[in-house]
Amino acid sequence: MIDTTRSSRISGFHKKSPAERLGIVSDFAGLDAAAAARLSDTGNLDLSLADRLVENVIGSMNIPLGIATNMRVDGEDVLIPMATEESSVVAAVCNAARQCYDAGGFTTSMSGTLMIAQIQAVDVADPHAARLRILGRREEIKAICDGCDPVLLSFGGGFRDVEVRVLDSQSGPMLVTHLIVDTRDAMGANAVNSMAETLAPHISAWTGGRVYLRILSNLADRRLARAHAVWPLDQIGGEAVRDGIVSAYHFAAADPYRAATHNKGIMNGVSAVVLATGNDTRAVEAGAHAFAARSGQYGSLTRFEVTADGQLSGSIELPMAVGLIGGATKAHPTAQACLKILAVTSAERLARIIAAVGLAQNFSALKALATTGIQKGHMALHAQNIAMMAGAVGDEIDRVAAALVERGTVRQDIAQAVLQDLRGGAAGA
Ligand code: NAD
């Protein structure tokens, strides 16, 4: 039934303290003291810091942080912190990395650390001539952009180029200016957005048009991270496994329905490291999926093929706009600890490692799918989740999960029956 006595129109909510807000929310939702206490326990993130990072804070949501082992990237061993709520993601990376470790692990590269900002101008009478007018002012544009961020300049970043496109849109031609900016160790959203906003009135004056949007593009295709690995046949279980993985890739390359799931698996690994390091998961995800559709058909971010001597070769290429400073990367103490675990000193190294993690993740998923199926590997942790959903607590979780795995059927109704037996047995004992 709809409760009409409750109102979400809460005046001045943003001006209250987190504790006051939590009190209001508890009353609204009928939270008991235990639930409210759990929300306000912010773990390794100071409540005052959380309150500065986002708006209307009442607490924090903790996500497990796991470490993927066995990763060797460009000749250097590295431990990978991964923040994820999904079971099997961390194990998948460990397994994939183990199977290519002796063959050298992952080799990576990066196309650059360039971000793109877009400025949209409409109602331009002569868009093609206006395009040339903008391009002719390259040096002026560079000076305006670089003047916005002297700190970025001092770290070797700044304006690199300007491009102008005439877009045919539903509301007529649009003139879209792209600022290409090297943002070095920053993800760079704020950096390039400021440049676009500062330049916008000039674009308006030079083109005679009206400027609307001034913001970065998350399709960061000037910031592509690449990773490659060879999995020897004896490590992966032979030719049939290799061919199954290649066939799975071909499936994804040919079918967007499959490619969506294929790339989701890649992002399981990618987003977990992006989140652990305080970076923007949505920015990286948007960039990855837009890049996957760049040909007009959504496809795979990875490629699998067979080397001349019959080994499995895997590669990945995707935009990777991550930073070591800016956003929550510097502010969140856990992100700082994760960056220390990764031992990265540049955003480029971080991006390259993340690409390697995405490839590792995909290898494991395809191998499982092409052989035993995905559920077998998921079974143990999934069984624990189902046991908890059925109400198991403490030791009961492992005991119920073990019983489910033994039966080979992980279902909540069975978990409930097992739990009932267990409790009945204990009560009777
Ligand atoms: P930021 O503005 O906090 O920090 C970047 C600035 O730090 C640079 O402009 C520079 O002045 C300075 N800096 C210091 N040392 C540097 C170094 N070694 N290399 C480069 N710059 C250095 O952060 P940002 O990276 O511009 O923006 C990231 C944030 O923007 C993220 O929180 C993201 O969520 C958010 N954001 C994203 C989008 C989007 O993706 N569409 C849009 C808006 C905001």
TrEMBL record:
Question: What does the record give as the reaction this protein catalyses?
Answer: (R)-mevalonate + 2 NAD(+) + CoA = (3S)-3-hydroxy-3-methylglutaryl-CoA + 2 NADH + 2 H(+)
For biological process, the GO terms are:
coenzyme A metabolic process
Instruction: Indicate yes or no for the key word NAD.
Output: yes
Q: What is its EC number?
A: 1.1.1.88
Functional pathway: Metabolic intermediate metabolism; (R)-mevalonate degradation; (S)-3-hydroxy-3-methylglutaryl-CoA from (R)-mevalonate: step 1/1
* One Pfam family this sequence matches: HMG-CoA_red
Keyword hit for Transcription regulation: no
Q: Could you tell me which NCBIfam families the record lists for this protein? A: HMG_CoA_R_NAD (TIGR00532)
UniProt-listed InterPro entries: HMG_CoA_Rdtase (IPR002202), HMG_CoA_Rdtase_bac-typ (IPR004553), HMG_CoA_Rdtase_cat_sf (IPR023074), HMG_CoA_Rdtase_CS (IPR023076), HMG_CoA_Rdtase_NAD(P)-bd_sf (IPR009023), HMG_CoA_Rdtase_sub-bd_dom_sf (IPR009029)
**PROSITE patterns from the xrefs?**
HMG_COA_REDUCTASE_1, HMG_COA_REDUCTASE_2, HMG_COA_REDUCTASE_3, HMG_COA_REDUCTASE_4
Task: Please identify the protein, giving its name as recorded.
Answer: 3-hydroxy-3-methylglutaryl coenzyme A reductase
**Record's keyword terms, sorted:** NAD, Oxidoreductase, Plasmid
Annotated GO MF terms: hydroxymethylglutaryl-CoA reductase (NADH) activity; hydroxymethylglutaryl-CoA reductase (NADPH) activity
Q: Which family does it belong to?
A: Belongs to the HMG-CoA reductase family.
